Amino acid sequence: MAKLTIPEEELMYSGHMACLGCGAAHAMRFTLKGLGRKTIMTIPACCWAVIPGVLPFSCMGIPTLSTAFETTGASISGVKAALKARGIDDVTVVGWAGDGGTADIGIQALSGAAERDDDVIYFMYDNEAYMNTGIQRSGSTPIGAWTTTTPVGKTGEWEKSLKKNMVEILVAHRIPYAATACIAYPEDLIRKVRKVKEIKGFRFIHIYAPCPTGWKFDPSRTIELARLAVQMRIFPLYEVENEVYKINIKPKKPTPVIEYLKMQGRFRHLPQEMIDKIQQDVDREWERLLKMEELTAGL
Length: 299
Description:
The protein is α/β, with parallel strands linked by helices. It has a single domain, classed as Rossmann fold (3-Layer(aba) Sandwich), CATH 3.40.50. The chain contains 10 helices and 8 strands. It has an 8-stranded mixed sheet with strand order 2-1-3-4-6-5-7-8, sandwiched between helices. Strand 5, helix 6 (186-197) and strand 6 form a beta-alpha-beta unit. The model has no long low-confidence stretch (mean pLDDT 94).
């Protein structure tokens, strides 16, 4: 019998309220397998404020604290300080927020916690828009993507705006560890979660979590789409530990990005020149990442 590479214990139970094919639900399930029971998690306004269920019921097997949209970084700092005051040092404190609550509304509190190097872990699950409140554009929405605030046929600055690179923003804070992860590669995700549990200081993991509802694709293809994003270098898997870069998966012959784009209704309107630009952006970012890995290899 083959050796199991993913822990069997489930800390996210059935009966949750996620949409069909929800990438964020997969992200939480795998992350909890890496974190274990001795974890306290804070969750701001986001899809995951709803997914656990209506009180007094919850699909979560760990204590969770609901917080305001902008306060994830502050809340985990406060929980960690409270535990320290009580002499409790064997509980992992985690913030779990979407891209809107991280890249936009919560970035101030996130930056403060990172600057202080608080001993906490921050997870950003990225479905690339404000999905819980109606599919509005966030700072993590890809260039050219349809949302309810970037409608097809309307031009604006959003068409020129690349999504924020949150890992690089956190690396600039000189934190001990930052990484990307993807639900299509659970072993890599769980390995990174277990790794950051053993690191002291502020740690950040950005998890790619497709949203069938907002991205307009067949819910049965969530994992396929997530895998394509990595294999096409749209969402590279890498980690930065003490400013040293390591790419975890290096696809040798990536398929053109159009194969990824045409799976999603949110990109259906794009002209060829925009598709070409997206391909150029992806290629340029990959080359930059390769150079960063080479430059920091000897540090």
